[in-house]
Specification:
Chain lengths: 113, 110
């Protein structure tokens, strides 16, 4: 089954404790992206990657890191999480380098206390 | 002005009725768009693409008004299962950030 998977789905952590949210797609898509969704602010792009070893900042990259060492994986790293990073995070992939027609993962609900 | 703006709603719609809502955009060069639907606390899912003047898929019709810089989504014969938030996003060339609208919430009631 073609899909985008994210892990963990739910995470409660404390300020400053490094964490990684994994994202994997099995569709051989070139483009992958991370978003956060907050009430009243909508879906905002954090980082995106057009291909292996190619990443770029979205609208809200501060406090996040990403890497794209393999085509299928695009982990999101929070080196020192803070409470303002409490949010619902979505990973997405797309067959084209432009990132259009995206397929989203099920989401990761992160709470930082 | 925001790149993409949507009326957050909610649009309360009787089952079987027609509902339409718009997404306005600021970049006059935008030529194509996508509509996604998002159920509560779920991931967005692609609903339809909108190229040139518009697109129709079953009960859903999307139209692009370049002069006034908005795209519309019309849902005919609304079903309870159409209750969701509808997000629009302009198509971008490779290498550009993607900006989603804030979404329009639609509630279809019996």
């Amino acid at each position: 089954e073609a899909q985008v998977t994210q892990n963990p789905r739910y995470l409660i952590t404390v300020t400053g404790k490094k964490l990684t949210v994994t994202c994997s797609q099995n569709m051989n898509h070139e483009y992958m992206s991370w978003y956060r969704q907050d009430p009243g602010l909508g879906l905002r792009q954090i980082y995106y990657s057009m291909n292996v070893e190619v990443t770029d900042k979205g609208d809200v990259p501060e406090g996040y890191k990403v890497s794209r060492k393999e085509k299928r994986n695009f982990p999101l790293i929070l080196e020192s999480p803070s409470p303002n990073q409490t949010s619902l995070y979505f990973c997405a992939s797309s067959p084209g380098a432009g990132g259009n027609e995206q397929y989203f993962g099920p989401g990761t609900r992160l709470t930082v206390t | 002005r925001k790149e993409v703006e949507q009326d957050p709603g909610p649009f309360n719609v009787p089952e079987g009725a027609t509902v339409a809502f718009n997404c306005t955009y600021s970049n006059s060069a935008s030529q194509s768009f996508f509509w996604y639907r998002q159920d509560c606390r779920k991931e967005p899912k692609l609903l339809m693409s909108v190229y040139s003047s518009g697109n129709e898929d079953g009960r859903f019709t999307a139209q692009l008004n370049r002069a006034s810089q908005y795209i519309s989504l019309l849902i005919r014969d609304s079903k309870l299962s159409d209750s969701a938030t509808y997000l629009c996003v302009p198509k971008k060339a490779a290498g550009n950030k993607l900006t989603f609208g804030g979404g329009t919430r639609v509630l279809v009631k019996p």
